[in-house]
């Protein structure tokens, strides 16, 4: 038997996928609510996307096209290994082009190209509970969610302003989903927060913490703030050194050991697409 | 339920309010076969401060926890006079409404300020938490109120961004009081508020609490084993032993002319300086 045939489609057995799909449906029915699920051991360490991989495995069909990104890039270790994993265990087509993908698993970024209906964005989540560092008791945070007691979340933002003069939380910035649940959007930069109001389905998987939550298409996602300190989606004040984009989220890259540095798009597919278009124009 | 001012009668003259703020009937709580407290009944009127004294294990903390909704009593009735809905049964009220009461109309001052404060959050954040919990979303106003309250409990304004872990025990206790009173509650539960503080700090805290209670017209239930504290703060006194109320009455009356043998023992046990 060939190695690939020894695996069930997408690695997990059918009963497990069924269980995860049920959880996903419940999560979609209650936007922003963390649904517990029986997370499985995956052939990778916790913290490497075990939650996202299980969700991807459960939603993947043989006709899907998969894209995996890590901090926006298609070619970093985490993205490459997860893409290879599904190439081997599910034999699905893979791509790096955002519009061509039907399922996109992401670690800590939303692709720059707007997603369309029919696409699924799967996030890897390390800590699903937005209140965790303020209230360590799980019994208490569940009650706080149940009773909509979210004052504590603003205490965190208050502390930011009192100490630094502005809300300095730059990633995993808490949001309120459809006026009800406060949700951790996973450690995406707050630049991406406004872009969570999208046409695609967003699924969040936390493997170690055994929680799945979701934002259905066209669902209101509002970043928490104060009336006199409104939310601001921030990025580095520069343009991409490769493609010249002023709109995309930028990574700072150190290029030598004498302090040289440059800013480049964190979304490699978006950057390559723009450079390709510029080359085509130059030829024509 | 009439909506008129409870402190004035129909002709507008001040009167003793007739409806109690808190009314407790036959309250009991046991831990398996052991009695926590049993058959406790009393009324607390607006603006009144009641002390509960007794030895360790007499059931006073159990009683307070039942009243504040931290423990579910086995039997009995607790009725609280709410601002909008009149008297409600707080036991059958349901958790969301009871938790709402606990952060608006009620306040709970713990013996150990570490139980009542968030030690990792600045003093201003601690005071502002209750405001944010009831929907305040304007940073400037929250901070203004926090500074105002720090002033009222005699904490310097330049300590507003310090964490409580950098405060002395007395300051932590004053901060806890500010954090509790910022939303203007009507009923304050205090569990040994001066325990663990040295006498000069105790005196200052008592002075402060007496001022706040009078100024805000608070009702309070103070659990303590320190008779000097109730002498200073409480209008009325309940003496508990083995889970039962053995004597109740006006503070001076109970302390100066104790009737029950246990109360006599308690009063005579106070060390004279």
From TrEMBL, chain A:
Belongs to the PhnJ family. This is Alpha-D-ribose 1-methylphosphonate 5-phosphate C-P lyase. Catalyzes the breakage of the C-P bond in alpha-D-ribose 1-methylphosphonate 5-phosphate (PRPn) forming alpha-D-ribose. One of its GO terms (biological process) is organic phosphonate catabolic process. It comes from Rhodovulum euryhalinum. It catalyses: alpha-D-ribose 1-methylphosphonate 5-phosphate + AH2 + S-adenosyl-L-methionine = alpha-D-ribose 1,2-cyclic phosphate 5-phosphate + methane + 5'-deoxyadenosine + L-methionine + A + H(+). It comes from the Bacteria. The keyword Metal-binding applies.
TrEMBL record, chain B:
CDD domains: ABC_NikE_OppD_transporters. Pfam families: ABC_tran. GO terms for biological process: organic phosphonate catabolic process. Keywords: ATP-binding, Nucleotide-binding. GO terms for molecular function: ATP binding; ATP hydrolysis activity. PROSITE patterns: ABC_TRANSPORTER_1, ABC_TRANSPORTER_2. It comes from the Bacteria. Residues 22-267 form the ABC transporter domain. This is Putative phosphonate transport system ATP-binding protein. It comes from Rhodovulum euryhalinum.
């Amino acid at each position: 038997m060939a190695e690939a045939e020894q695996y069930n489609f997408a690695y997990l057995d059918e009963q497990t996928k069924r269980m995860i799909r049920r959880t996903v449906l419940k999560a979609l029915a209650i936007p922003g609510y963390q649904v517990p699920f029986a997370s499985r051991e995956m052939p990778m360490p916790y913290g490497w996307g075990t939650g996202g991989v299980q969700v991807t495995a459960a939603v993947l069909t043989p006709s899907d096209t998969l894209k995996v990104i890590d901090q926006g890039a298609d070619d970093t270790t985490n993205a490459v290994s997860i893409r290879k994993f599904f190439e081997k265990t599910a034999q699905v087509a893979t791509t790096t082009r955002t519009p061509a993908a039907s399922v996109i698993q992401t670690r800590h970024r939303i692709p720059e190209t707007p997603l369309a209906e029919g696409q699924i964005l799967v996030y890897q989540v390390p800590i699903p509970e937005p209140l965790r560092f303020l209230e360590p008791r799980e019994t208490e945070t569940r009650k706080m969610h149940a009773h909509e007691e979210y004052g504590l979340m603003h205490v965190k933002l208050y502390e930011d302003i009192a100490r630094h003069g502005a809300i300095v939380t730059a990633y995993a910035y808490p949001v309120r989903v459809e006026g009800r649940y406060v949700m951790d959007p996973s450690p995406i930069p707050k630049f991406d927060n406004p872009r969570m109001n999208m046409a695609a389905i967003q699924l969040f998987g936390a493997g170690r913490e055994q929680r799945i939550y979701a934002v259905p298409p066209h669902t209101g996602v509002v970043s928490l703030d104060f009336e006199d300190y409104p939310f601001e989606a921030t990025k580095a004040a520069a343009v991409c050194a490769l493609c010249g984009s002023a709109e995309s989220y930028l990574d700072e890259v150190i290029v030598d050991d004498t302090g040289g540095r440059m800013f480049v798009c964190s979304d490699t597919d978006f950057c390559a697409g723009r450079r390709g278009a510029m080359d085509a124009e130059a030829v024509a | 339920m009439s909506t008129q001012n409870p402190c004035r009668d129909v002709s507008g003259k001040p009167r003793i309010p007739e409806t109690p703020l808190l009314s407790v009937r036959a309250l009991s709580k046991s831990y398996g076969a052991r009695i926590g407290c049993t058959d406790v009944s009393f009324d607390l009127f607006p603006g009144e401060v009641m002390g509960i004294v007794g030895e360790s294990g007499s059931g006073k903390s159990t009683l307070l926890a039942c009243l504040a909704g931290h423990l579910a009593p086995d039997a009995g009735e607790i009725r609280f006079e709410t601002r909008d809905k009149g008297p409600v049964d707080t036991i059958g009220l349901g958790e969301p409404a009871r938790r709402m009461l606990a952060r608006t109309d009620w306040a709970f001052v713990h013996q150990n300020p570490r139980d009542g404060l968030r030690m990792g959050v600045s003093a201003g954040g601690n005071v502002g938490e209750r405001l944010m919990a009831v929907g305040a979303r304007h940073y400037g106003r929250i901070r203004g109120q926090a500074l105002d309250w720090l002033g009222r409990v005699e904490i310097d304004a330049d300590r507003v961004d310090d964490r409580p872990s950098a405060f002395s025990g007395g300051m932590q206790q004053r901060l806890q009081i500010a954090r509790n009173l910022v939303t203007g509650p009507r009923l304050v539960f205090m569990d040994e508020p001066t325990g663990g503080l040295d006498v000069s700090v105790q005196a200052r805290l008592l002075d402060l609490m007496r001022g706040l209670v009078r100024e805000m017209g608070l009702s309070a239930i103070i659990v303590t084993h320190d008779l000097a504290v109730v002498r200073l703060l409480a209008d009325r006194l309940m003496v508990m032993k083995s889970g039962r109320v053995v004597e109740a009455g006006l503070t001076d009356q109970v302390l100066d002319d104790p009737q029950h043998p246990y109360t006599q023992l308690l009063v005579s046990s106070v060390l004279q300086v």
